[in-house]
Amino acid sequence: MGMVSYLNGTFIDTGNLTISPYDLGLLRGYAVFDIMRTHNGKPFLFSGHWKRLYNSAKQFGLKLPVSEKEFAAVLKTLLRLNGFRESMIKTVVTGGPSADGFSPAGKETFFIIIEDLKTLPQDVYLLGAKVITLEHPRECPSVKSTNYMTAMKHSRERMKRGAIEILYTCGGKALEGSVSNLFIVKRGGLITPKEGILLGITRNFVIKLARKLKLQIEERAIPIKELLKADEAFMTSSTRNIVPVVMVDRTRIGPGKVGPVTKAILDAAERYNESY
Amino acid sequence: MGMVSYLNGTFIDTGNLTISPYDLGLLRGYAVFDIMRTHNGKPFLFSGHWKRLYNSAKQFGLKLPVSEKEFAAVLKTLLRLNGFRESMIKTVVTGGPSADGFSPAGKETFFIIIEDLKTLPQDVYLLGAKVITLEHPRECPSVKSTNYMTAMKHSRERMKRGAIEILYTCGGKALEGSVSNLFIVKRGGLITPKEGILLGITRNFVIKLARKLKLQIEERAIPIKELLKADEAFMTSSTRNIVPVVMVDRTRIGPGKVGPVTKAILDAAERYNESY
After folding, report:
1. CB contact under 8 A, B147 and A148
2. Hey, is the C-beta of A140 within 8 angstroms of any chain B C-beta?
3. pLDDT in tens, B189-198
4. Contact residues, chain B, for A33 at CB < 8 Å
C-alpha cells in the first residue's frame, strides 16, 4: 500500500482514505474504475486508460472531477510521493454518498491509490497457465464497472482447480476472462473477440504489436471448440501483461507449452516496455 | 443516520464507521445485504430477513459472523441505543479487505446501520404510482447482492419520467422491480412471478395475507401484455410496503386508480402491522 493517495481533490495519507458506508459504490455497486501500471516509473498506455475510464463513467452517468491533463499531473505527483520502482495505479469513481442509500446525489467519490507493483510468478510466463471456463454473459461488459460478483463467487473453486483465471463463455463462444482478454493463435495468426467484452488496453496494445510483427489478426467471436483446438492461447491484462494459456479446463492447448507466436509477442512487448 | 452502529463485533459511533478502499465490497461488488424495518419498534418479519441474508451470503461463499440469536440481540441493543420511533435496519456483509484487491482473504466485513425510517409520501398509497419498464435479465437474481448498477445507470431517466420504480422485463415477461416485487390483480385473484427474481420478504408476507383474505393466488410468470391489461397492479418492498401501480410506461393500469383488491391488501397489512 502506498503512503499517499488522492481523494476528491486532496492528497491524503492512504491510512486516512476511507469510504462512507453510505457510498453508492459500496451499497449499490455504482462505480467504475481503472488499473494501470508503470514502466520505468511512467503510467503505461496512459491515454488509453484515461479514455476508457472516461467512457465507462459516462456510460454510467458518473462525472470525473479531473481532466486528462489534471489526471496526468495528479498521477505524476502521487508516483513521486510514493516512490515505488514500479507502481500499480488504482483509480475509482463511485456514485458517492446518498442520503437514502439509493438515489444518486451527484457527489461522486473519486480516489486514486498507488501500490507497489506485484507481478505474477515468472513460472507463469515460462510454463503457461491454466484457466477454467464458466458460462456467464456479463452485464454491461463494455463498462469497467466494479461488478465482479461472479468472479468472486467462483474464486475459491478457481483456486482449488489451480487456475489463474475464469474464462467466461456465452452460447458456445469464448468471450473474455474475469480480468483479462483472450487471444488464440491459429496457423500463425491471432484471433481475439471484439463484441460483448471489455476492450482491454493491453488487448489493443497487443493488436498493435502483432501488426508490427506482420502477424495476421482477426477480431471476431471464438467458438469454444475452436479455442480448444487452437495452436496457442494467451490472455492479456494491464497488470498481468501477456499470460500464456496451456490448459483450458481439462483440455491441453496445442502441445501444452508456451508456443512460438505467444513467445514472439511476449518478447516484443518486453522490448517495447523496456524503452518506454 | 443513527448514532450507534455495529461493525465486526463492536458497537461504534456511526460517524466512525468507515470502509477500507481495499474492501472487496467496494472494489469488486462482493457483498450481500438486507434492509428491514420495524413496526412498533420491533424488527418486522425478522426470521424471513435473517434466512434470506444467510442464504444470500452462503450462495456467494460469504460467512456471517453472528447466529440468528446473536443478530436479534445486536439489533435489540442497536434499536434501543438509537431510539428512533420506527427504524430502517441496514445489514451488509462484504468479502472484506484483500491485499491484492481481488482474492478474498476470508475476513468478511459485517456492519449494521440504523436509520430513522423514511416512508414514501402518503399520496403514493392513495393515488398510486408510475413505473417504467426496462429489458434486463439480472445476474444471480435470487441473491440480495449490492449489484444495482442497472438501476443506478437508469435512475436519472426514471426520475425524469416521474416513475417510482424500474420494472425489469425479460423475453416478454415482467419480472420484478429494481427494489420491489410485482403483483397483478386479475378477476379478483393475485398473480406474482416466482422464477428468476429475488423472493422479497414482503412478497411472501402479502401472499400469506392474501390467503387469509381468501384471495386466489398464482405464482407464475407474467407476460408484459397481461400486466398491461391487468385490473390492478402493485409492488412490494420492506421499506415501501405495498405500492399501488396505476401506470406502466404510458399505459394506464385498470381505471388508473388504486383498485379494491390492492386496497384490501393494504388495509389488511396495516391491521397486521399495528398489532405487531
Report:
1. no
2. yes
3. 999 999 999 9
4. 27
Cα distances (Å, whole numbers) of residue B235 to A55, A82, A255, B180, B231: 34, 52, 57, 6, 14
Please tell me whether residue B224 adopts helix, strand or coil conformation: helix
Q: Assess whether pLDDT exceeds 90 at residue A140.
A: no
CB count, 10 Å around CB of A228? 17
pTM confidence score: 0.94
| Facing residue for A149 by CB, picked from B111, B140, B153 | B140
Cell triple for A160: 482449488
A40 Cβ contact partners less than 8 Å away, ≥ 6 residues apart: A274, A276
Q: Which three cell numbers stand for residue A253?
A: 492447448
pLDDT, tens only, A119-128:
999 999 999 9
* One-letter identity of residue B69: K
Cα–Cα distance, A52 to A65 (Å, whole number)? 15
Cα separation, B196 vs B198, whole angstroms: 7
CATH node for A4-116: 3.30.470.10
Report the distance separating Cα A22 and Cα B75, nearest Å: 19
Given an 8 Å threshold on Cβ–Cβ distance, is B28 in contact with A140? no
For residue A229, the distance in angstroms to the closest alpha carbon of chain B comes to 30
Task: Choose the mutation target among B152, B166, B239 for the interface with A, i.e. most A CBs under 10 Å.
Answer: B152
Across the interface, whether the CB atoms of A21 and B18 are under 8 A apart is answered: yes
Q: What mean pLDDT comes out for the span B69-87?
A: 97
Instruction: Name the CATH topology of B122-274.
Output: D-amino Acid Aminotransferase; Chain A, domain 2 (3.20.10)
C-alpha–C-alpha distance, residues B106 and B226, integer Å: 46
Pick the closest to residue A269 from A227, A195, A213 (CA basis): A213
Question: How much is the CA Rg of chain A, to the nearest whole Å?
Answer: 19
Q: Which of A21, A149, A155 is closest, CB to CB, to B113?
A: A21
ipTM for this model: 0.92
- What are the structural domain ranges in chain B? 4-116, 122-274
**Per-residue buried b or exposed e for A131-167, using 16+ beta carbons within 10 Å of the residue's own CB:** bbbbebebbbbebbbbbbbbbbbbbeebeeeebbbbb
Q: Does B102 touch chain A (CB under 8 A)?
A: yes
- Catalogue the E-assigned strands of B117-198: 129-135, 165-170, 173-177, 181-186, 189-192
Mean pLDDT of chain B: 96
- Residues 165-204 (B) with a CB less than 8 A from some CB of A: 179
Cross-chain residue pair B19–A28, CB shorter than 8 Å: no
Q: Cell 510514493 sits at which residue? A: A82
Burial class (CB in 10 A: 0-12, 13-18, 19+), B99: exposed
